[in-house]
Amino acid sequence: MRVIKNYLYNAGYNILALILPLITGPYIGRVLKPEGVGINSYTNSLIQWFVLIAGIGISYYGNREIAYVREDKKKMTQTFWEIQILKVIMTVVAFFLFALFIQFYRKYYWYMILQSLNIVAAAIDISWLYMGIEDFKRTVVRNTMVKLASLAMILIFVRDAGDVGIYIVILALSLIGGNLTLWPHLRVLLVKVSFKELHPLRHFIPTVSLFVPQIATQIYLILNKNMLGIFAGATSAGFYNQSDALVKVILGLVTATGTVMLPHVSNAFAKGETKKVNELLYNSFDFVSCLAIAMMFGLAAVSKYLGTMFYGPGFGPVGLALMIESIVIVLIGWSNVVGTQYLLPTNKVRSFTISVVFGAVVNIVLNFPFIYFWGLYGAVWATVLSELAVTAYQLWVVRHSVDLKKMFENFLKYLVAGILMFIPIYYLELLWKPKDMNVQGIMYTGIEVVIGIIIYVIVLLILKPTILGKIKMIKK
């Protein structure tokens, strides 16, 4: 039950990090227009390289290391401060590199300065500590208040197409505020340690080993927007960002299991419970498959007019981009289970690194011709094929360590349920054509979603995948 509760909290946490642009999307799309949305998306994609340098792989590494030592308060305190000091050092390095960058890249100069607040937010993010001790409730509750405050500020202060800078500042300050709320509780979690006992540099090489896959993972998002901005204009980068924002909200539900299970599996691995580690993998993979396949077909079915309905006139290209990108919901869901929930906690970092670097290389190679010939849709297909490369490699790596047949035993049943759900929902989408965020448009989309869920559940009840038995056991 603890894992299930943590999953629900972390799903809320992941969605919360993305919920602000989702809620404000219809408003911002209509106020800032495609050009303003594109400027924010493009400049943010550039600043993310420096955010990555400041974070230096600590999100995964810190989570895992805290999970290893969480039963010893002194060791946990020492580990936390060592990692956090290293993070501060890397933040200074990131700001130095950013200062050099803006001396040479002057386009959108003022917006880039404002976006640099995101580097500060990264420096004070200690959510990895709470994830390592499996305390997800605190992050959700505290960040909810901050997100609601930022939502109010956007609705109050962002009034026309010239308020792009204000929008950037509000988003960055919401991240800083949310991260600051996690610090006061440290006095309860940690104990006093001598500064002389701290050796932050001992974590440098291990974090770098996880920094490489983190950079490679981000290439799919950042580089696509970078290249779209250069070759197709900031507006195309904005279309990609708006499509990706909706997909990532759904992925927040699917990949929430990764952050929850990483410390759980790490702790089991540290105790030598190999059988338990594998069993956790099978259960998690089955759960993610069930959820991800339903969400992939569901999003694809309602996507045709969703861009225009959600973001407003001028965002029509987002619809087809959403339909194509929905495929990554399943692919990222699977790679999250195998990579984050198995390879990382069992210390198979090299295999994890190779998989995401392989995906990044595929992405870079495909981006040039795909974006040149097909623009926005080329970038989306490059992303899909890159994620396919990552997932395929990870499954190939673990083929001798786990039972792949057991992992995929219910896949065909979920696939049949997803296809049978997609057909009538897509027909309704073409029939109703919901193109505006009015009562009728929201009602039509809501009806489609409800019908889709009902069809998927009914088909699963008929086909009887093994996950139904596990749900009954949880209820008992």
Topology (SSEs and partners):
Elements: H1 2-55, H2 58-69, H3 73-104, H4 109-115, H5 117-123, H6 127-132, H7 137-157, H8 164-180, H9 186-189, H10 204-231, H11 234-270, H12 274-302, H13 306-311, H14 317-325, H15 327-343, H16 349-397, H17 404-407, H18 411-432, H19 439-463, H20 467-475
Helix pairs in contact: 1-3, 1-5, 1-7, 1-8, 1-10, 1-11, 2-3, 2-10, 2-11, 3-5, 4-8, 5-8, 7-8, 10-11, 10-16, 11-12, 11-14, 11-15, 11-16, 12-15, 12-18, 14-16, 15-16, 18-19
Subcellular location: Cell membrane
Membrane topology: Multi-pass membrane protein
Keywords: Cell membrane, Membrane, Transmembrane, Transmembrane helix
End-to-end C-alpha gap: 11 Å
Count of distinct structural domains: 1
Q: The biggest beta sheet, please? A: none
Q: Cα-atom Rg, whole angstroms?
A: 22 Å
Average pLDDT across residues?
A: 85
Helix content: over 70%
Protein described:
- This protein is mainly alpha-helical.
- 83% of the residues lie in helices and 0% in strands.
- The mean pLDDT is 85.
- The chain has one domain (2-409).
- Helix 2 (58-69) runs antiparallel to helix 3 (73-104) and helix 11 (234-270) crosses helix 16 (349-397).
Compact summary:
The protein has helices at about 1-55, 60-70, 75-105, 110-115, 115-125, 125-130, 135-155, 165-180, 185-190, 205-230, 235-270, 275-300, 305-310, 315-325, 325-345, 350-395, 405, 410-430, 440-465, 465-475.
Descriptive terms for the model:
transmembrane; mainly alpha; 476 residues; 20 helices
